Amino acid sequence: MLSRTLLRSRIAAPRVNSLGLRFYSFSQEEQPRIRIGSTAPNFEVNTTQGKIDFHEYIGDKWAVLFSHPADFTPVCTTELGAFSKLKPEFDARGVKLIGLSTEGVDSHNQWIKDIEEVATEGEKFGFPIIADSTKEVAYKYDMVTEDDFKNLKSGMVATVRSVFVIDPAKKIRLTMTYPASTGRNTSEVLRVVDALQLADKRGIATPVDWTEGQDVIIPPTVSNEDAKAKFGDFKTVKPYLRYTKLN
After folding, report:
1. Which of 87, 89, 114, 243 sits CB 3.0–4.6 Å from 126 for a disulfide?
2. Domains in the chain, CATH or no CATH each
């Protein structure tokens, strides 16, 4: 009889898929833990724009990785069309978009024709869609429901609507997860990118419902003297709540 240690090592060992790529087994104990600040798991996979290494795809840019349940579905069609139409805005912020479902490249390419017809007003679809047929990425990024996690070893599994904002250092900076029935707000994804990039650049925080151009918050760790030197005028509501405008 195999010892528990040996049996565990066999269960947790990476497997090789049809592309020759190695990935973890679908063991819940071995599943990567995705937290803000953790390194985004890397992977190699086929997409509608060819085979990619995810970290190489990000390069020195930011990235938004998001999953959708399935091709040729109504909510997903509206979402991917909206993201594609907003691609110039993401480009201007140095952000790469990349989508995902567990269906294949051929299916994605056929579906893109529908997206261009009904959701992009005829404009060319602008970013790659991952063909996660092995469910490697869905597993590593925990993109499935509790029930579907139990079925990862079977056929096509519908991923939930996960969103990951990843910075150039390949760190997870924000996560959002929606159920299959609820379409995402693309403007919110763009808004949080603006907030994250501004916080990195200027050392501030952003209040509720903040949008570009509105007042920002001075972190409590910054003294009044340093705040005056760094930001100029500011308004104190409470000693811990101070607003300022950025030029």
Report:
1. 87
2. 32-184 (3.40.30.10), 203-244 (3.30.1020.10)
